[in-house]
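User: For a reading group we're discussing how well predicted structures match intuition. Take Leucine-rich repeat-containing protein 14B. Before you show the prediction, I'll give you the sequence so everyone sees exactly what went in.
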Amino acid sequence: RATMKSLRFISAEAFVSNAEFARKSLSSIAHNLFPLLFKASYLLEQGEVIHDLVENWPLVEFNMGKLLGTTVDYQEDLSHRTCSVCLESCLTGLRDYVLNHPSPYMNRLKVVDLTGMKDVEVQFCECKKTMGRWARTQLLSKLCLELLVYLQQTQCNPGTFEISIDVLIDLFVTERNYELVVQALLKKCYCPLKICCVAFRSDNLALQKFFYIIKLTDPSLLRKLEIVHNVRLEMEHLEILFNSIHFPLLMSLTLPARTFNVRRFTATDERMLTNIGEKMGEMTQLTELSMSFSVLTGRIQKLLSPLKTPLKTLDVSNCSLNHADMAYLANSFHANHLEALDLSGHNIPDLYPSIFFKLLSHSSSVLRSLTLEDCNIQDTHVNMLILGLSPCQKLQEFKFLGNPLSSQALKHLFTFLCELPMLKNVEFPVPRDCYPTGITYPIEDASLCRFDHQKYESVAEELNLILLQANREDVKASTPLFGSYDAAVQETNNELGAYLIKSFKETLEKFTNSLNKMS
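Assistant: Thanks. Here is the predicted 3D structure of Leucine-rich repeat-containing protein 14B, as structure tokens, for the group to look at:
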């Protein structure tokens, strides 16, 4: 659907579409028109014009999210266009702003905010080449270091050293860009462009390196911390992290798989868990917590009860929760505030059906996203599920992949889902009757694709027809067999794959050495 453009925006597009003319004329443009021209240039992917607009930016703030978001002149939000041409032009323009503004009077720019960019699966930019979070981290670090080298080697105007611009960014660090980012952070105080890390994600990184770099980011400013794949952080390391570093502004925390494992708990571990809970309680802004694939049986209360602020997002997928854990969640003060909840990997119908529905009813007035993948929800449970979901009138997203449901049950469920007014995204499983008879759940990865694809397509068509007949074309229904899209994994999957092969090789070598010793 085409978005309306104001006459001002159409004029701006016409102006920037002639790059040579636009670049020559920038000096005579009114300062308040720069944001308008920037969005028009971004839409048309006019890299050279973008570069020159940023290089001559006349305002105190340059905020990507606000500039590309919904504006009066053009309501379409472009912040999900992580176009490589445009973003590289922005960042090189920023570097040249520093180099080409010798007069302190001209230097009005104080804050550059790059945190508003959203990495999505489908890109609408013409070049089709994206610059994800990892690449943005890499380029900004590189430009900061190049800028320092240039300033040291050249006779610069003294005014250049008076420039100080805070660049707010969500850093994404892996083994491959670690050294570069560390150097940029170490030399931050000398560089006119000051990297200010608002969110930090770490994948494929040795623990020692993670601890070193996290201290360099200035944790007192950090709002989001994600330690995700191949960072071998266990409970004792988490305790050290929380004891040695304070995160006063932290709002969102994601911990890697197997951070906790209560199956081998000792008295020391219990003390450690209590301490971690208390430290999280000191993070008064914390409202989002993800601890998937840890073993937390019977310990959820110990971990979450010290929190003083109710959680809005909780991911405890595949955490082996028992009845006591679910009862705590349902009766805790968190329940009434949960906007996003992931309980995947728990056998809800068999273990705690009534207490789960109590939790659902408590969070129903605010719940926006619910994920129940691999929860053994069968045809006989669908009516109960519909009853539980009925009060969730604000639900926007419902994911229930990996449940043994027939095509008939899915049709029944979809007829109900049409009635949820805010619903936008549904991820449903391949119907059980599309798989060979006797398939067992949860289905192993090797068997996931071994279903009747023609029959599935036919069922998917029927499900979409149900949505269509209810005038719900706004709902996207899909079956991403191997899970939802993750922009960070997509961007670094080559490195991730190489890391996994290396880990497998090391394990194999250890096993072979053990066998040799035995023989």
